[in-house]
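Batch manifest, entry 17 of 40.
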Amino acid sequence: MRWAVVGAATVAIVLAVAQPAQARPGPIPFNIPAQDASSALLQLCLAADCELAFTPSPGHSVRTRPVRGVMDWRTALAQMLEGTELRYRFVGAKGVRVWVAAPAPPPPPPPEALGPVEVRAVEVVGRLSDQIDEGLSRKRAADVISEVVAADRIGDLPAANLAEALQRVPGVAIEREVGEGQFVSVRGLGPLFQSVTLNGAPVAFNENIRNSTQSGRQFRFRALSVDLLAGARLTKSSTPDLIDGGIGSNIDIETAGGLDGDQFLSLRLGGEASARSDRLGADLSLAGRIVSADGEMGLIAGVSEETRSVRYDRFQIMRYGQTLIDGRWLTTPNDVRTTVEQEERRRRSLFVGADWRPSPEVRLDFDGLVSTFDNDIREDRLVFGFGEALAEPGAVVRVQNGVVTAASVADGQIDNNTEFSDQSHLNVLVSVGADVSLGDWRLTPRLSASQAYSVLDTPLERFSAESPEGVAYAFDLGDAASSRRAASLTTDFDLLNPANLTLDQLAIRAVESRDADVTVVFDAERRLDYAWAGVRFSALSLGVQISDRSRGYDRRDRRAVPLSDDDSVLDFYTGATPADVFSDLIATRSTPWTRTDFARLRSAFRIADPASDIVFRPGDVAPTGADQQNSYAVEEQVAAAYLRLDFGGQAAGRSFSGNLGLRAIETRTHVEGARLQLVDGAAQVGPVTFDGDHQAVLPSLNLAFDLDEISILRMAASRSITRPSLADLRASTVPASVLVSAIYKYGAEAITDPEDGVIFSGVGGNPSLTPYVSTNFDISYEVTGRRTSFSIAYFHKTIDDFIEAVAAPETLVFETAVGPLVEAEVLMSRPHNAGRATIDGLEFGLHQRLANGLGLWASATWTHSRLDGGGRLTGVSDWSWSLSPYLERGPLSVNLSWSWRSPFRSEADMQGGGVSDFTVGAAGYLDAQAIYALPAQAELVLSATNLTDTRELAYEGSKDRLLQLGSVGRQASIGVRWVW
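Output type: C-alpha cells
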C-alpha cells in the first residue's frame, strides 16, 4: 500500500512539473477587503500569481483600500495602494516591489532590488503587538473561522511549547503534564478531536509509554521544540479541502521555507533554572537561510537543543473503596502516598527546508524535520496503607460527608518504592510538493511521510520494599481541597533507615510504540469568472487524498530475581529525598525518606527467562501470553475526494464571499491482537483480528459578509468526523496492574482472599468502533481596527456515535509464579459507540492598544457540554480565559500572561485505575517575559513561569474525595538572541 502511495505521488509531481508553463490571463476577479497591507498584498498576489518583494516599516502598519471586481492585477494593485503611503514599482511581467515612503521630502529611492520573492514569503516581523495585529489580519483574510499564532509571537511569550502559546487564543485550553503544556483542547473537545498537521500534511503520533494509559491520536506538543517553527494556524470551521479528523479543529503547524524571506542567520543561547532543582538547563538554537542571487532557489536549516530539570511533588490518594467501620459503610482511601518525581528533559530538533522555482509557473519545495524528546524520570514514593486497616482495633477516623478525611492506624505497613524510566520519543517527517500554474489551473501535489517512535531506553523499573507490619501513622486532609495543602501526614517509623525494610519485588515493564503515516494529496484549482443570479463564482477546487497509517504497540512485563539469596535491601539505598520535600503540600510531615540507587539494583538483579540484564527492550525477550494480550497492531487506510466552489457577490449593499463543497471519505481498518485462554488446563494464545470499513460524506458551507471596512460577519455549517483513538481500536485486554501483580505473586489465593487495594477491573479495546460524526454550526463577528480589534463567536456541535466506556464482566486467564494458570472474573471497561454528545459555546477575543506603549491581548471561552443520559465530556472546562497585558517602550518590551481554566474531567485515570470520575481542579498560571534590545542586533530575554506557584488539584467527582495535590514550583530563564 505504501509503495502505491509513493508511486502515485511521484507520478503526480513529475507530471505537474513536466507541463508547459502558461501565463494567467489578464482579467482576474478580486474581492479583497480593506486591511493591513501585508495581508492585502498576500491575497492579491496569490490570486494573480505575481512575485512580490515588500519592505515593511517595523512597528508601523499601513491599511489598504478595498479591491473588488474583475480587472488585471496591475490595476488592482494601483487601486489597493491609492492614497496610502506605500509606493511600488513593477519588475518584469509578474514582479512588483512595494515599500513605505519616507515621511518627509525628498523621498528616497526604492531599496535596491534583492530579487523577486514569492508572495508566500511576506511576513511582518516586529514586536508582540505588531505580530498580534498580523495574526488578526490573517484571521480576517481567511475563508474560514480561524486563529493564527506567528513564530515571533511564540518567541515573545513565556511559552515552553506551542501548546502554551495556543492557549492564549479564543476557544483553546490546554492540559499540563508535570508543569508543562502537553495536550490541546478546542471548543469543548479534548485532544483526540484535534487534527494536527505539519505544513498541511498528517503527522504520526507519539504514544504514552510511561504507564498503561494510552493517548491514541492525541498529539503530544511537549515532544516538539518550538525553536524552528514559523507558527501555527488553527482552523475552527471545515472546508472540503482540509485534512479531516478534527471535529474540534485543525491545527496546522508551520515551518519556514527556503524562499519565505530574506537571507538571515540567528543564534540563541540561554539557560533555565528551577526553584526545585540545583541543575541549570541549557538552550541553544542556530538557524539560517540562504537565497540564490536570482531569487529562484532557497535553503533554510536550523538545529536546536534545550534541557530542563524539573522536580514535581505529588500528594496522592490512589483510589477509594467501601469499608465497614463501627457498623456503617464509609468511603475510605485505600492508601495515601507521597511521590517526589525528578525529570531530566532534553529536546533536540533539526529542520531543513528547500524551495526551487525553475520557472515563474512552477515551484518545488522540500521539508524535513527530525525532533527528539528524551525524559529521564525517577519517582521516589512512600505508600501508607489504609483501607481495611481503618476497621482494625486502635484505628481512629474522622468522617466528612461519608468520606474518611483523617485517620490514624496502629497496625499498618509502609511501602517504599522507586520507579526509574528513560523515555525516548523520535519524530521524523519529510514532505515534497509542487505548486504549478497551467493556464487557469493551479496544481499542488504533495507527498509526505512521517514516523513517531517511542521507546523506554530504560524500561519502567519499579523497586518496592516494605516496612514490618504494625507501624503506626496518621493523615489529615484538613481543608486540602480549598487551600491545596494537606494538614498532616506523620509516622514514628524511621523512614531514613533502610535496615528496617525488606524486599518486596522489582517489576519491569518494557514498552515500544511505532506510529507511521504516508499520505499523498493532489489538489487542483481552476479560476472562474462566471456569474449566476447575482453570484460570481471565482474558483473551482477538487482533489484526492490517500493515507496509509499504522501503529504497532509492544509491551513486556517481567519480574526480576535477585542474584543473591539475601533478602536484605540495605546495600541498595544511598542518600535521601530532598529536605524540603512537600513543604508546600503538607503542613506537618515526617522526615524525608531513604531512596534506592539504580546502578546497585542493576548489578544485583536479573530477569529469569531468559537470564539477562534488567534493562531491555520488547524485542529482546520472547513474549508471554500476557505480553501478547497487552500488545496490538492497527493499520488504517484513508481515501478521500473533494469538490469545492468559491463564490462572492453583493447582498443588501454588502459584499459577501464564501465557499461550499463536499468531501467523501472511506476508512478501512485492520486490527491484530491476542487473547490468553485456558484450554484443557493449558495456556493457549488465540489471535484476535478485525477488518472494518466506514464511509462518510461531509458537506460544508462558509460565508463571510463585509459589514464595513473593519468588521466582518461569518457563518459556517458542516459535518466532520474524528476517527476512534488507535488505543480504543486495539484488540487487547489489559487487567489492572495491581491485580496482575497480586495473582502472579499469590496465585488463586489472591482471588479468593484478595489483599486490600486489589481491584478486579481492567480496560481493553474494541476494533468494531466507528468514527464520531458531528454536525457543526458557527457564527462569528470580527472587528479589526487600528487600536481595537475583537471577535465574538457562537458554536454548536451535535456528535453522533459518541464513544463511551462500557463495563462488563469477563473471565480472564492469569499467569502465576506459584502454580498453574488461574481464571478470574474481571470487570472490563471497553469503548462502544453508545450515544450522542452536544456542545454549545461562546468565545471572545480582544486586542486593545493603549497609550504610552501599553496594550492588552485577551480571550475567554464558555462551553456547555453534555452526553445523552447525563454526564460531561472529558477534557472540557466550562470556562477558560487568558489575559496578556504588555508594555513596549524604546528598547524594552514586557508582557505578562495569566491563563486560567475551570475544573474538567480528565482521561488520566480512565485506563482501569479504579477511579470513575478523575476531575482536575481549576487552575491559573502567571508567566512573564521581558525583552531588551542590545547593540549588534541582539536581544536579552528574561522569562519566568508559574510565578503564582500554582498547586494542582484533582478529585473524584466531589472535592470530598481528594485524589491529588501537585506542585512543580517556579522556573526562570535568561537568554540572548542574535539575528543577522
